[in-house]
Amino acid sequence: MLLPERSAARVISCDVFDTLLLRDHRSESRRFRDIAALAAQRLATEHGILRDPAAIWSVRVEVQRHAYRALDLARPTGDVRFADMVDAMAQVLGLSGPPAAILHEAEIAVERAQLSANAPLLEWLGAEARAGARVIAVSDIYHDAATIGLLLGALCPRHPVARIYTSADHDATKRTGALFATVLRAEGAAPGEVLHIGDDHRADVSMPRALGLRTLQVVRPRHLILRRRTDALRARLVSALAPPPRYDRPGSRLA
Hints:
Elements: E1 11-14, E2 21-23, H1 28-47, H2 53-74, H3 82-93, H4 97-114, E3 115-117, H5 119-130, E4 134-139, H6 145-155, E5 163-166, H7 167-170, H8 178-187, E6 194-198, H9 201-210, E7 214-217, H10 222-241
Parallel strand pairs: 1-4, 1-6, 4-5, 6-7
Antiparallel strand pairs: 2-3
Helix pairs in contact: 1-2, 1-4, 2-3, 3-4
């Protein structure tokens, strides 16, 4: 990614995942399995509750799939909220209170372990902020701003991001342009005063450019894309060969 010496932008808007924070070679399916394994381990060791990791993974996948299907029918410009997905998962898995909170905590723990800061971009953004530009984060994600702030604070504690906008918080997405409209109103900025940086061509390049924003694309390395696709294929094969997930009786505990 070639960064200009100066942006000449009043506001610099950055995508979060695979832009400010870089994911590793693991696919989404693999990440969900890692989250399920950690959640099952913590449920057993901290609360004596037995839940099959495969069942937690299966519930997560199904809940997310149905949530986005319902969203497409009811609010195609909006987004789902992770808190709502966790509530649905907890109900299916028979969890409540602190055990249910583990589903959220495991997600954040795995994200922290598998993400890394985009140091060159953050260094450039810091220089832009010191020169007077306002740096914000704008993400199409089911997490709220508080969660994104937690991840940024843990992985790049001296980051220059002044405010975080997420599709979950504003029920509007970058890919439809609705979130950019929200950002422009909140920041009191004209489209030509904003430079948006991100990795997704539709959400971070073509849509903001159509709205008059300047754009800069972060291109993921081809070898990383190939490794993720390979990892996703491996995960599908493992899922196909694995026995059906065991949904333990709600409330079942270790003896």
